[in-house]
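To the structural biology subgroup,

Please find below the input and predicted structure for Ribosome biogenesis protein NSA1, which we are adding to the shared reference set this quarter. The sequence is reproduced verbatim from the submission form. If anyone notices a discrepancy with their own records, reply to this email rather than editing the shared folder directly, so we keep one authoritative version.
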Amino acid sequence: MPRFFTGDELGAIKSVAYATGGDDGKEWKASTSVLVSGSSSGRSKTVQKLALHRAGSDTLLAAVHADGSAAVRKLQGDSVPAVVYEWSEIRLKEKQRFVGLDLKESGAYTCTSNGALRLIKFAQDSPEPSSSLATLPMRLCEWRLSEDERAFAYGGDEVELSVWDTERAFSQEGAAPTSATTQSKKRKRAQELLHGELWRAKNLPNDHLDLRQPVHNTALTFLQPSPSPVHQHILAGTAQGALRRYDTRAGRRPVAAWKNVATSGINTVEKGSHDNEVFFADRCSTLGALDLRNGKTICTYKGISGAVTSVAPAQSFMASAAEDRFIRLHSTFGPPAEAGKNLDRKGEVLDKLYMKVIPTVVVWDASTDASGFIPDEEEEGVDEVWDAMEAVQSESEGEGKSGRRKEKKIRAT
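Predicted structure (tokenized):
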């Protein structure tokens, strides 16, 4: 059964594990345990990002806080995890925040809204990790690392979606190579890109009044692995409630732009466990699933009264953290086999757990089996048998009635 880790506004980190219960086995029960206690100093210790990485039998959990502190802990069941590395992002300024965190075999990546990018390299022979620093543009809203760690992407307020080579971003900037055979158009475009930058999106054309459209990317996610850092498929959400799909090989503008997907700005987007499935949440209370083939919303989860700030897909399940103080467990079924068709079953809220402190982020532990949620096929089969029996009975009754009517007509004549 699925297990998740959550962080809240006071800096606490908790484990939430789900199991089925009840006489019919349909009820979901959540058990929680506190891994890291919260602070009494207010929101200065708010957990802004969580990231998890499994290395063999070890499970590492990284967390970054609003005051710039960060730590990587080694999980030990439900007991207090041991701190492996600790550091502080001194470049994090007042009113800035962490917009990205990822944990890989090589180390931990962090990025702040003012463009402070850091790689904490883990060294087995040294208790102190080494750091590599880089500087990105300011006013960032989201930063993501690709699955193979070779590229990362970001976007923000008046910051276009951009894809970078990870290794070059942390390397020293050198002189731009020149070649007599390089075309002038390619030279001009190369001069526009920063050192380490591979691709940058281009704004949409002016609107019907010939006014420039604002650029405000609030969320993004990589859609699929890529053999090359420069070839990426990315979905970005905007402050206007739109979702835009980019293919860096197809040009600088989105290959698909879906307007008014949400009623307000997009808070988060996450690729689902099924093909062509992505989850999105806005700044009101909308949490839904989208079909990437046509941009249509295939499912909207009901009963949420606060903005969802984080979602964690987990095979047949998904967890969400919302500002109404609830951690929710959702079922997921994926898009229909044929685009545009209706779903036989739609996702729903299976359980909601009230948290005393507003949760800010949730991640899946990626270890427990979360693929076992299957509709009650046996009961559905029984229902189909009973429905068939009722249909046969109604047909026989209908034949009897029609036969009696015929007899009455014959007698009347």
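Summary notes: The chain is about 10% helix and 45% strand. Residues 379-413 form one domain.

Regards,
Lab coordination
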